[in-house]
């Protein structure tokens, strides 16, 4: 006589599991890969496109479905839809070793690419290839954080490369234009030029004073705050070149 699989067991493959421990028990849902983050970001709003199956499990890999009274005890409701939403919101995505390694490699590459786009060799003012940035990251012992996006890790990565590797590197300078009324220009010129690494052009025409200069990107906010405070809405700060390199002069 053949052994029958219990009716509360469902086998699933190629699945991204989200797990939440509550009330002393483990609850899991089976989702399509990449859809969990889209749901959390508000990109995806249709639960049917997120879940591989609309059910709550105690163990997805074994196909064991959670009992209704366990849901009631832990979540205060036996509504699968409500429980699924709570698990999606608060649960932890379970990542396999190969997938984690792949995600780390991809994130590391993305961070290195962003650093390469924003930075230059101080001696030549030319950008480095991404491969050289990756080597410097390894040399400096940079550890990327999977829970944070690449953009938010660029500043810390650059700081670590500067402190812990042999690669000479700096943020590429920004080329900006400051335009203010002449009367403000005469008064603020010393303060404005303090933010400049190099003044490329300064001129007065009619009742306008204008200066084009290269600045460290950290000075952009300093200049902007100065104009807001001193020029009462009549000053203007424009970005002409986001990252100045030897090739963009």
Q: Can you walk me through this structure?
A:
This protein is an alpha+beta fold and 249 residues long. Helix content is 39%, strand content 25%. It is built from nine helices and eleven strands. It has helices at 35-41, 47-50, 68-75, 80-90, 97-118, 130-139, 154-164, 182-194, 219-230, and strands at residues 16-22, 25-31, 57-59, 64-65, 92-94, 119-120, 170-171, 173-181, 196-205, 208-215, 236-244. A hairpin with a 2-residue loop joins strand 1 (16-22) and strand 2 (25-31). Helix 5 crosses helix 6 (130-139) and helix 5 packs across helix 7 (154-164). The longest helix has 22 residues, at 97-118. The relative contact order is 0.10.
Instruction: Specify the structural class.
Output: alpha+beta
Gross morphology: elongated
Biggest sheet, strands in spatial order?
A: 9-10-8-11
Helical run tally: 9
What share of the residues lie within helices?
25-40%
The quaternary organization reads as: single chain
Number of strands: 11
Termini separation comes to 82 Å
> Strand-and-helix sequence, N→C?
EEHHEEHHEHEHHEEHEEHE
Low-pLDDT parts are 1-7
Mean pLDDT: 90
C-alpha-based Rg, rounded: 27 Å
Percentage beta strand: 15-25%
Major pleated sheet = 4 strands, antiparallel
């Amino acid at each position: 006589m053949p052994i029958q699989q219990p009716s509360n067991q469902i086998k699933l493959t190629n699945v991204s599991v989200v797990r939440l421990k509550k009330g002393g028990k483990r609850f899991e849902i089976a989702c399509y890969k990449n859809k969990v983050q889209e749901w959390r970001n508000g990109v995806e709003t249709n639960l049917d496109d997120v879940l591989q199956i609309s059910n709550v499990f105690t163990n997805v890999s074994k196909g064991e479905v959670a009992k209704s009274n366990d849901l009631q005890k832990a979540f205060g409701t036996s509504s699968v839809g409500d429980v699924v939403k709570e698990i999606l919101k608060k649960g932890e995505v379970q990542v396999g070793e190969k997938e984690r390694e792949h995600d780390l490699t991809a994130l590391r590459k993305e961070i290195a690419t962003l650093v390469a786009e924003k930075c230059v060799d101080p001696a030549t003012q030319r950008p480095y290839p991404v491969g050289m940035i990756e080597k410097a990251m390894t040399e400096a012992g940079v550890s990327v954080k999977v829970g944070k996006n690449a953009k938010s890790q660029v500043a810390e990565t650059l700081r670590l490369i500067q402190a812990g590797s042999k690669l000479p590197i700096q943020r590429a300078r920004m080329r900006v234009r400051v335009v203010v009324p002449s009367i403000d220009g005469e008064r603020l010129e010393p303060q404005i030029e303090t933010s400049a690494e190099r003044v490329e052009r300064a001129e007065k025409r009619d009742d306008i004073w204008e200066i084009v200069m290269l600045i460290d990107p950290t000075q952009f906010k300093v200049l902007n705050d100065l104009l807001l405070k001193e020029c009462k809405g009549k000053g203007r700060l424009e970005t002409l070149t986001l990252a100045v390199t030897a090739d963009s002069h």
